[in-house]
Amino acid sequence: MDEAIRRKLLADGEGMGDERRLILVTKMFMRWSTDGSDVTLRKLKHMLQQSDTAMYKTMLVNQAIARESKECSDLAAKVQQQMIQAQTRFVEWKQRLKDAQQVRKYQQEYELISEMINKYPSRAEMNRRLEQLREDLRNSAERRKHCDAVLEIRRKQAHLLMIALNELNHQRYCLASPVISAYSTVPVLFVSTIFTSENH
Q: How far is residue 91's CA from residue 112's CA, in Å, rounded to a whole number?
Protein backbone atom coordinates (compact mmCIF):
# COMPACT_ATOMS: atom_id res chain seq x y z
CA MET A 1 0.00 0.00 0.00
CA ASP A 2 2.85 2.42 0.81
CA GLU A 3 4.42 1.85 -2.61
CA ALA A 4 1.10 2.48 -4.38
CA ILE A 5 0.56 5.72 -2.47
CA ARG A 6 4.11 6.82 -3.22
CA ARG A 7 3.61 6.23 -6.95
CA LYS A 8 0.28 8.06 -6.81
CA LEU A 9 1.88 11.09 -5.21
CA LEU A 10 4.73 11.05 -7.74
CA ALA A 11 2.24 10.88 -10.60
CA ASP A 12 0.12 13.71 -9.19
CA GLY A 13 3.09 15.99 -8.57
CA GLU A 14 1.68 18.53 -6.16
CA GLY A 15 -1.57 16.65 -5.79
CA MET A 16 -3.31 18.28 -8.78
CA GLY A 17 -2.64 15.61 -11.45
CA ASP A 18 -6.27 14.56 -12.00
CA GLU A 19 -7.53 18.12 -12.34
CA ARG A 20 -4.67 19.07 -14.67
CA ARG A 21 -5.30 16.00 -16.80
CA LEU A 22 -8.99 16.86 -17.01
CA ILE A 23 -8.16 20.41 -18.10
CA LEU A 24 -5.77 19.10 -20.78
CA VAL A 25 -8.39 16.64 -22.06
CA THR A 26 -10.93 19.46 -22.26
CA LYS A 27 -8.51 21.68 -24.18
CA MET A 28 -7.58 18.83 -26.51
CA PHE A 29 -11.26 18.09 -27.14
CA MET A 30 -11.89 21.76 -27.96
CA ARG A 31 -8.93 21.75 -30.35
CA TRP A 32 -10.11 18.56 -32.06
CA SER A 33 -13.63 19.94 -32.39
CA THR A 34 -12.13 23.00 -34.08
CA ASP A 35 -9.64 21.46 -36.51
CA GLY A 36 -10.90 17.82 -36.69
CA SER A 37 -7.31 16.59 -37.06
CA ASP A 38 -6.55 12.88 -36.74
CA VAL A 39 -3.38 13.70 -34.83
CA THR A 40 -5.39 15.66 -32.31
CA LEU A 41 -7.88 12.79 -32.13
CA ARG A 42 -5.12 10.27 -31.42
CA LYS A 43 -3.72 12.55 -28.72
CA LEU A 44 -7.21 12.93 -27.26
CA LYS A 45 -7.72 9.16 -27.21
CA HIS A 46 -4.32 8.71 -25.65
CA MET A 47 -5.14 11.24 -22.96
CA LEU A 48 -8.50 9.55 -22.33
CA GLN A 49 -6.73 6.20 -21.98
CA GLN A 50 -4.32 7.77 -19.51
CA SER A 51 -7.28 9.18 -17.59
CA ASP A 52 -8.92 5.73 -17.54
CA THR A 53 -5.66 4.19 -16.37
CA ALA A 54 -5.26 6.83 -13.68
CA MET A 55 -8.85 6.31 -12.57
CA TYR A 56 -8.31 2.54 -12.49
CA LYS A 57 -5.11 3.02 -10.50
CA THR A 58 -6.96 5.32 -8.10
CA MET A 59 -9.67 2.71 -7.72
CA LEU A 60 -7.07 0.03 -7.04
CA VAL A 61 -5.35 2.27 -4.51
CA ASN A 62 -8.66 2.96 -2.78
CA GLN A 63 -9.45 -0.75 -2.71
CA ALA A 64 -5.99 -1.50 -1.34
CA ILE A 65 -6.41 1.19 1.30
CA ALA A 66 -9.84 -0.14 2.24
CA ARG A 67 -8.50 -3.70 2.37
CA GLU A 68 -5.51 -2.66 4.45
CA SER A 69 -7.76 -0.61 6.70
CA LYS A 70 -10.05 -3.60 7.22
CA GLU A 71 -7.07 -5.86 7.90
CA CYS A 72 -5.72 -3.34 10.40
CA SER A 73 -9.12 -3.11 12.07
CA ASP A 74 -9.39 -6.90 12.20
CA LEU A 75 -5.85 -7.15 13.53
CA ALA A 76 -6.56 -4.49 16.16
CA ALA A 77 -9.74 -6.32 17.20
CA LYS A 78 -7.83 -9.61 17.33
CA VAL A 79 -5.05 -8.05 19.41
CA GLN A 80 -7.65 -6.50 21.70
CA GLN A 81 -9.35 -9.87 22.10
CA GLN A 82 -6.02 -11.54 22.81
CA MET A 83 -5.23 -8.87 25.39
CA ILE A 84 -8.58 -9.47 27.09
CA GLN A 85 -7.98 -13.23 27.06
CA ALA A 86 -4.44 -12.76 28.37
CA GLN A 87 -5.73 -10.52 31.15
CA THR A 88 -8.41 -13.09 32.00
CA ARG A 89 -5.82 -15.88 32.07
CA PHE A 90 -3.54 -13.70 34.19
CA VAL A 91 -6.30 -13.13 36.75
CA GLU A 92 -7.14 -16.85 36.67
CA TRP A 93 -3.53 -17.95 37.16
CA LYS A 94 -3.06 -15.34 39.87
CA GLN A 95 -6.05 -16.79 41.71
CA ARG A 96 -4.72 -20.32 41.18
CA LEU A 97 -1.35 -19.26 42.57
CA LYS A 98 -3.06 -17.72 45.58
CA ASP A 99 -5.11 -20.89 46.11
CA ALA A 100 -1.99 -23.05 45.76
CA GLN A 101 -0.16 -20.91 48.32
CA GLN A 102 -3.13 -21.21 50.68
CA VAL A 103 -3.27 -24.99 50.19
CA ARG A 104 0.48 -25.22 50.84
CA LYS A 105 0.06 -23.16 54.01
CA TYR A 106 -2.75 -25.43 55.19
CA GLN A 107 -0.65 -28.50 54.37
CA GLN A 108 2.30 -27.19 56.37
CA GLU A 109 0.01 -26.41 59.31
CA TYR A 110 -1.53 -29.88 59.02
CA GLU A 111 1.90 -31.53 59.02
CA LEU A 112 2.95 -29.47 62.04
CA ILE A 113 -0.21 -30.37 63.95
CA SER A 114 0.15 -34.00 62.89
CA GLU A 115 3.70 -34.10 64.22
CA MET A 116 2.54 -32.57 67.50
CA ILE A 117 -0.30 -35.10 67.77
CA ASN A 118 2.01 -38.02 67.01
CA LYS A 119 4.18 -37.02 69.96
CA TYR A 120 1.31 -37.84 72.31
CA PRO A 121 -0.63 -41.12 72.59
CA SER A 122 -4.15 -41.50 71.31
CA ARG A 123 -7.23 -41.04 73.49
CA ALA A 124 -7.72 -44.80 73.78
CA GLU A 125 -4.08 -45.21 74.81
CA MET A 126 -4.43 -42.40 77.34
CA ASN A 127 -7.56 -44.01 78.78
CA ARG A 128 -5.80 -47.36 78.96
CA ARG A 129 -2.81 -45.84 80.74
CA LEU A 130 -5.08 -43.90 83.07
CA GLU A 131 -6.97 -47.06 83.95
CA GLN A 132 -3.67 -48.85 84.50
CA LEU A 133 -2.52 -46.06 86.82
CA ARG A 134 -5.80 -46.26 88.72
CA GLU A 135 -5.38 -50.00 89.03
CA ASP A 136 -1.80 -49.54 90.23
CA LEU A 137 -3.01 -46.93 92.71
CA ARG A 138 -5.68 -49.30 94.05
CA ASN A 139 -3.12 -52.09 94.31
CA SER A 140 -0.72 -49.74 96.09
CA ALA A 141 -3.47 -48.74 98.50
CA GLU A 142 -4.26 -52.40 99.16
CA ARG A 143 -0.59 -53.21 99.69
CA ARG A 144 -0.20 -50.23 101.99
CA LYS A 145 -3.26 -51.28 103.95
CA HIS A 146 -1.89 -54.80 104.20
CA CYS A 147 1.53 -53.49 105.23
CA ASP A 148 -0.07 -51.25 107.85
CA ALA A 149 -1.99 -54.23 109.21
CA VAL A 150 1.13 -56.38 109.25
CA LEU A 151 3.08 -53.56 110.86
CA GLU A 152 0.41 -53.19 113.54
CA ILE A 153 0.54 -56.92 114.20
CA ARG A 154 4.32 -56.82 114.39
CA ARG A 155 4.13 -53.85 116.74
CA LYS A 156 1.73 -55.71 119.02
CA GLN A 157 3.88 -58.81 118.80
CA ALA A 158 6.95 -56.78 119.72
CA HIS A 159 5.05 -55.27 122.62
CA LEU A 160 3.97 -58.69 123.81
CA LEU A 161 7.50 -59.94 123.32
CA MET A 162 8.76 -57.18 125.55
CA ILE A 163 6.15 -58.11 128.14
CA ALA A 164 7.15 -61.76 127.87
CA LEU A 165 10.81 -60.88 128.26
CA ASN A 166 10.02 -58.81 131.28
CA GLU A 167 7.97 -61.68 132.64
CA LEU A 168 10.80 -64.11 132.01
CA ASN A 169 13.16 -61.83 133.82
CA HIS A 170 10.64 -61.63 136.61
CA GLN A 171 10.33 -65.44 136.73
CA ARG A 172 14.06 -65.82 136.78
CA TYR A 173 14.12 -63.46 139.69
CA CYS A 174 11.32 -65.36 141.36
CA LEU A 175 13.06 -68.70 140.98
CA ALA A 176 15.48 -67.49 143.51
CA SER A 177 12.50 -66.96 145.90
CA PRO A 178 10.07 -69.96 146.26
CA VAL A 179 7.32 -67.78 147.68
CA ILE A 180 7.08 -65.46 144.65
CA SER A 181 7.36 -68.28 142.05
CA ALA A 182 4.08 -69.82 143.14
CA TYR A 183 2.14 -66.67 142.08
CA SER A 184 3.96 -65.96 138.81
CA THR A 185 2.88 -69.02 136.77
CA VAL A 186 -0.54 -67.72 135.67
CA PRO A 187 0.64 -64.40 134.11
CA VAL A 188 3.28 -66.19 132.06
CA LEU A 189 0.75 -68.63 130.62
CA PHE A 190 -1.65 -65.75 129.83
CA VAL A 191 0.99 -63.73 127.95
CA SER A 192 2.12 -66.80 126.02
CA THR A 193 -1.45 -67.49 124.91
CA ILE A 194 -1.96 -63.92 123.63
CA PHE A 195 1.34 -63.94 121.73
CA THR A 196 0.42 -67.24 120.05
CA SER A 197 -3.04 -65.95 119.02
CA GLU A 198 -1.52 -62.77 117.52
CA ASN A 199 0.81 -64.84 115.34
CA HIS A 200 -2.14 -66.73 113.91
A: 31
- Give Cα separations from 14 to 7, 24, 56, 153, 195 (angstroms): 12, 16, 20, 142, 152
- What is the CB neighbour count within 10 angstroms for residue 188? 14
User: Is residue 48 a contact partner of residue 25, using CB atoms and an 8 Å limit?
Assistant: yes
Burial track 9-23 (b if 16+ CB lie within 10 A, e otherwise): eeebeeeebeeebee
pTM above 0.70, yes or no: no
CA distance 153 to 146: 11
> Could you report the per-residue pLDDT of 39-78, keeping only the tens digit for each?
777 877 887 888 788 788 888 988 999 999 999 999 999 9
Q: Of 162, 169, 146, which is closest to residue 194 (Cα–Cα)?
A: 162
pLDDT tens figures, 145-191: 888 888 899 888 888 889 988 888 888 877 765 544 444 444 444 44
Q: CA-CA distances (angstroms) from residue 59 to 19, 55, 62, 65, 68?
A: 16, 6, 5, 10, 14
Classify residue 161 by burial, with Cβ atoms within 10 Å: 0-12, 13-18, 19+: middle
The number of C-alpha atoms within 13 Å of 74 and in the hemisphere containing its C-beta is: 6
